[in-house]
TrEMBL record:
The gene is LOC113218269. The keyword Transport applies. Residues 1-124 form the Longin domain. Keywords: Coiled coil, Membrane, Protein transport, Transmembrane, Transmembrane helix, Transport. The chain crosses the membrane at residues 202-225. SMART domains: Longin. It is found in: Cytoplasmic vesicle, Phagosome membrane; Cytoplasmic vesicle, Secretory vesicle membrane; Endoplasmic reticulum membrane; Golgi apparatus, trans-Golgi network membrane. It comes from Frankliniella occidentalis. Gene3D superfamilies: 1.20.5.110, Longin domain. This is Vesicle-associated membrane protein 7. It is a single-pass type IV membrane protein.
């Protein structure tokens, strides 16, 4: 079975209406002047919609892929391919990277032809090179691994938070028991003091009665009190 040739992104651009804000052609051997005129004519209707649209259509021996989002058109021209994953993954990467720069977004609606070549063309070239060289697939795998690690960390944080809630409950119960223990100690001390007071009073009464008894006996013995 013959191996399908690797898809290649030949050209990419970001447009506002029919104004090309920034573009890059990776293969100068392909004459795209006539093709680009036809492409611009074909995507005019996309400008009227404010929500994201995706479109793929053939153009001679090439294939055109378009993502239109909020009036900005992200475009790439590739060799023919049955898979739409790579071209649209590329365009979405370009869109997301471009959208991370609010100053470019705000300027794009009034910018002139090729005005963003200095600001964004090196970034566009790097993204295109990543996809054409296959590095983007590896980057996607790394991003998936990072996302997996992120989900694991989120799960661990949730477990720690749940454990923290249980620790808070345990701490609250411990504080409650400690408070009850302090109340018990205060009550026990009060009972102990009351008991000592009662014992002291009893001994005082006993001593007084004993002294009275001794006094009476002495008085009888000395004849002070006669029977």
């Amino acid at each position: 079975m013959a191996r399908q040739p690797r898809l290649k992104i030949i050209y990419s651009a970001i447009l506002n209406r029919d104004i090309t804000l920034v573009s890059h052609q990776d293969d100068d051997s392909v004459d795209l002047n006539a093709t680009l005129k036809e492409v611009k004519e074909s995507i005019k209707n996309l400008e009227q919609s404010s929500f994201e649209q995706k479109l793929t259509f053939p153009m001679d021996s090439l294939q055109v892929h378009v993502v239109a989002d909020k009036g900005i058109i992200y475009l790439c021209i590739t060799t023919r391919t049955e898979s739409q994953y790579l071209p649209f993954a590329f365009l979405l990467r370009v869109r997301d990277t471009f959208s991370e720069q609010p100053s470019l977004i705000s300027r794009s609606y009034r910018a002139g032809e090729d005005e963003f070549d200095r600001d964004f063309r090196p970034v566009l070239v790097q993204i295109l090179d990543d996809f054409n060289s296959g590095r983007a697939d590896k980057l996607s795998q790394v991003e998936e691994q990072i996302e997996d690690v992120k989900q694991i960390m989120i799960h661990n944080v949730e477990r720690v938070m749940n454990r923290g809630e249980r620790l808070d409950d345990l701490l609250s119960k411990t504080e409650e028991l400690e408070s009850q223990g302090q109340d018990f100690r205060r009550e026990a001390r009060a009972v102990f003091v009351q008991s000592r007071c009662r014992n002291l009073k009893m001994w005082i009464v006993i001593v007084i009665l004993f002294l009275i008894f001794v006094t009476v006996v002495v008085l009888f013995a000395t004849g002070v009190i006669k029977s």
